[in-house]
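Progress narrative, work stream C.
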Amino acid sequence: MKRSTGTGRETGAQAGALEALRGTHVLLVEDDDEMRKMLAFVLRRSGYRVTEERDAFQALEYLGNILLDGHPDRAPQLILIDQCMPGVCGLDLIQATRTAGMRIPAILITAFGDAEIHNRAHALDATPVLDKPFRMGELLAIVQRLAPATDG
C-alpha cells in the first residue's frame, strides 16, 4: 500500500495537520501498477494529494479506518476507481461508500463500458464513467470540476 503522507518525519499530530494542508485529496484505486502510477503522477502534478490503493479491498479498509477513527474530515474529496479488479469491483466499492453514508464523488474508469455498467454507475451517482482509453486532459477536466485542486 502506497500512501502520500509526507516525509515520514512528522509526529502523528503534525502529520495530520500537514495532511490537511496538502491540497484536495483523491483516492485512486487501480490494480494495474503502471496505470495507477501514471494517474497518480498526473494528479499530483496537477496539485492533488493522492492516496493509492491496489484494489477495492484495500480502499475499503482505508475508508473504514477513517470512519472508525472518527475522522470523516480526512476522507478523500474524490474517488477515482477502476471497474474491473480482482475481488471487489469498482461499482461495489462505490455502493459500499454510499451504504456507509459517504457521499464522495466518484469517477469510474473501465475498459468494458457497456450499458449495464453505465446505468449502475449513474444510479450510484458515479458519473461520469470514463471508457479506456481516455485522454488525460479529459480526466483532469472532470476531476477539476468534481473536486477543484486547492493550493497546499
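Work stream C, second folded protein:
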Amino acid sequence: MKKIEAIVRHFKLEDVKNALTEKGIHGMTVNEVRGYGRQKGHTEIYRGTEYAVDFVPKVKIEVICTDANLQTVIDTILETAQTGQIGDGKIFVTELCDAIRIRTGETGEEAL
C-alpha cells in the first residue's frame, strides 16, 4: 500500500476529486495548508500598503491506495492539477505498512 500526499492549488481540488472518483479511487483526506517553495510567497496591496505573504495557501490531498493503483492516482493528479505555472504543487509517495478499518477490524488492502 502507498500513501500519496498531493499539495495543490485550492481551485483544483474539485477537479482532482472528480477525476479520481471517475477512475474508481474512492476516499481521500483534505487539509488546508500554507507553505512556500520556489514561489517564496508573493506581495499584495491592502489599503494602499504593500505587504509580503510568505506562506501561500494550498490544499493537501491524502490518498491511500494499493500498489496496483499507484500510477493511476499519480497520473490523474498530475493531469488535473497542473496549470504549468510555478506553484502548482508537489506529490509525495510513501510506503504504508498497514491499515486497519476500525468498524470491522479488517487489515491491509481489505481495509481500504
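Residues 2-111 form a domain with the Alpha-Beta Plaits fold (CATH 3.30.70.120). No further action is required on this item.
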